[in-house]
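Supplementary notes (optional reading)

For those who missed the lab, this is the record we used. Protein: ATP-binding cassette subfamily C protein CydD. Length: 541 residues.
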Amino acid sequence: MKPLDPRLLRRARAARTFLAASVLIGIASGALIIVQAMLLAKVIAGVVLQGADVTSAAWALAAVVAGRAVLLWCQEVVAQRSAAAVKSTLRRQTLEHALKLGPVWLSGERSSSLTTLLTKGLDDLDPYFARYLPQLVLAATVPAGVIGWMATGDLIAAGTVVITLPLIPIFMALIGWATQAHSRRRQRALDRLAHHFTDVVTGLPTLKLFGRARAQEAAVRRVTDRHRVASMSSLRVAFLSSLALELLASISVALVAVGVGLRLIEGHLGLETALMVLILAPEAYLPLRQVGLHFHASADGVAASEEAFRVLETPLPERGDRTDVPDLRTTNLQLYDVTVRYPGRDEPALDGFDLEVRPGEVLALTGPSGAGKSTVLAVLLGFIAPERGVVVAGGSAADEFEPSAWRRQFAWVPQRAGLRSGSVADNVRLGQPEASDDAVRLALLAAGSSELELDKAVGEHGQLLSGGQQRRVALARALVTDAPVLLLDEPTAGLDTDTEAAVIAGLRATGRTVLMVAHRPALITAADRSVVVGPRELVLA
Ligand SMILES: Nc1ncnc2c1ncn2[C@@H]1O[C@H](COP(=O)(O)OP(=O)(O)OP(=O)(O)O)[C@@H](O)[C@H]1O
């Protein structure tokens, strides 16, 4: 593990400010430690030898101690603020990037890993900023100053420190090497726990229905146990390594002390100098020991930031920046020879697919389950880039356009409605935040949901609404936009025949281009045309 990931400095301005402030505070702390040792030695020697007046030195010592307390406070304030700023920057950047990567990239276990990373994961950066980095700066500044100053009083003691001090970073590097693997294992166990737990909670009604809820207890226990074992082994390494570093530093200080004691007895050193060297010796080792101590607390934070960088460094599909997207109210939309392969899949989800969508037509995409109908919509929305082939509008390829400008031409109703908690109106307004109550009512009417009150509560993932109501609210959310093309993934699934007829009539009445994935005969019949998606594309009149 690198002590300081340069990507952190590049991505978060707060981290750079923090580092600069920490270096200044570190240098000031180093100077105060030396002055404190000199004054302390002077006061003790004065008292022991009963000759000198130590009053002024005692006052100066009190001032130095107060100065160190103020520096510590400054360091804490700067660290907490920087940690908060860096976490918020990383969270924002990671979330924005994940959104740009789109729902296809987020599918699978990625969404729960991302949730863990953006919540608990990045919080682990707190000890990294508040403890580890300041200590790292002190470790780089204080020992050099202390050894230099010791050398002016006792060259042999300074030499002893110079020889023994490097043992600490060597041990730390070895320990760090072992800890990194433990931290990663712990992070993976936490990810798996989050994923499993989300799955179980979301699927609890189904599990109960099939009498499998109890069986999940054992599965949750197993995953939790794995996390516990990983955490305990991290802690074991942390405690053992602290003990090793502590022991090493104590033996080194003892070596210095024995040498100083002998030279004092033999008269080669004065009492004040000997005291100063003895007081300073532990200070040379302390920052390095503390770095080792805080290293473990920060390892989880560093693992989380590496995870965030992994997301941030995932390349975005190449898209142009043109915003002059042709108006699809008047322009044909074409797919030529489009082949799509999902990451990790050998078989293509779409193979050499051609399609032409004319303005204002209602077109049904049909075909067996898994044939690639939803994938056609994902390609049109730019959620996945075709391996071969191209999407064309008005003579230009879709990937020449800036993604959000391109997507403004479309309103999408996915297979899962994707509603969030709030009211029905809140959910419809996701399509058009400025929509008036009348516009929302009109959209609900066109979606066959006139019976739904605008302020009716919607729970998480659309709970509190029936499956059919969720679909219709999602449809109203698409209809309230002014997008010229509606991409609908089975818009009438779960609706009764009358409501389905009303929805189809509502769709036609909008006069917009509709491209819908359709399994139900009523929907296929209501379309102007239907296209079969599958290994062999058939275009039916
Ligand atoms: N995110 C994904 N990662 C990997 N494979 C995927 C992903 N999404 C879909 N697939 C695979 O791509 C193929 C086409 O899927 P798609 O959802 O487009 O089919 P579909 O025709 O819409 O099916 P259905 O009618 O059941 O909704 C399937 O084999 C599916 O397993």
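If you only remember one thing from this example: Confidence is low (pLDDT under 50) at residues 536-541.
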